[in-house]
Amino acid sequence: MTVNDTALANRFALAKTLAAEAGAMALDYFNRRETLVIETKRDLQDVVSIADRNVETFLKERVAEIYATDGFLGEEFGHDEGSSGFTWVVDPIDGTAPFVNGMPTWCVSVAIVRDGEPVVGVIHVPCSDELYASAHGLGATLNDKPLRLDPARNLQNALTGVGCNSYVTPERFGAIITDLMQRGGNFIRNGSGALMLAYVAAGRLVGYYEPYMRAWDCMAGFCLVREAGGVTQPFPATGPALLEGHPVLAANRSSFEELLAIHMKHV
């Protein structure tokens, strides 16, 4: 094993540990969510609580203790640029709206990016006790069981995940849904893009598309989907572009081109 391989393997092990610990911390907040003060950010649908901030602080401090020169990007506290070549990209609670409303479709998302590509992706789903884990060249697993996508699944015989937010007009999103259904597809939206990307890696969804997402929502899921044998649309992840929103598309190879055609039609 080379030095680079060892560096990646060590960080992968830490990412799995931290995601599980952060998930336990978030679950404790979830179980007493009635006590949380809920705030809004960009709009009334974009919510945050002390749970999001404290879980991210926990992750950031633990990474800094062990890998002080690694970069760190989190949804709540922004970007600290490192010098090691590795950047941790985390969403402490992806699906805050389901979280504060008592629904189980939220998760902790932990990714590591190197040279603009996600090389580690770990998603912990506390309410269902699921840990999705992947690293470049090491495959993807769900609770330690290997994940490999079934090429027989397609847009017409499976579900597609979709997402939207206030960066996308209702008219554009409606046209995307119409196009998908006219092709014989069906869709689901559960409030967590990261979790739906994990579902793509697990074969529960045949693909996931959202016209505008941020890196902390998708980097872990991208690694998972790729390592499970799927395909992802390029997402700029170096320099200032890492901090900006971009379209997200990840799918089984049997469905990627059809979903890409939908994306290109409605750009």
Structural description of this entry:
There is one protein chain. A hairpin with a 3-residue loop joins β3 (71-74) and β4. Helices cover 36% and strands 27% of the residues. It has 2 domains: 3-146, Fructose-1,6-Bisphosphatase, Chain A, domain 1 (2-Layer Sandwich), CATH 3.30.540; 159-265, D-Maltodextrin-Binding Protein, domain 2. The chain has helices spanning 3-31, 50-66, 96-100, 170-182, 193-201, 215-227, 256-265; strands at residues 39-40, 47-48, 71-74, 78-80, 86-94, 107-114, 117-125, 130-135, 139-142, 145-146, 159-162, 186-188, 207-213, 231-232, 246-251. The protein has 267 residues and is of the alpha+beta class. The strands form 3 sheets. Strands 4-3-5-6-7-8-9-10 form an 8-stranded mixed sheet, with helices on both faces. A 5-stranded mixed sheet has the order 12-11-13-15-14, sandwiched between helices. The protein has a two-stranded antiparallel ribbon with strand order 1-2. It starts with a helix and ends with a helix. Mean pLDDT is 92; it is low at 43-47. It has 7 helices and 15 strands.
Structural topology:
Blueprint: H1 3-31, E1 39-40, E2 47-48, H2 50-66, E3 71-74, E4 78-80, E5 86-94, H3 96-100, E6 107-114, E7 117-125, E8 130-135, E9 139-142, E10 145-146, E11 159-162, H4 170-182, E12 186-188, H5 193-201, E13 207-213, H6 215-227, E14 231-232, E15 246-251, H7 256-265
Parallel strand pairs: 3-5, 11-12, 11-13
Antiparallel strand pairs: 1-2, 3-4, 5-6, 6-7, 7-8, 8-9, 9-10, 13-15, 14-15
Helix pairs in contact: 1-2, 5-6
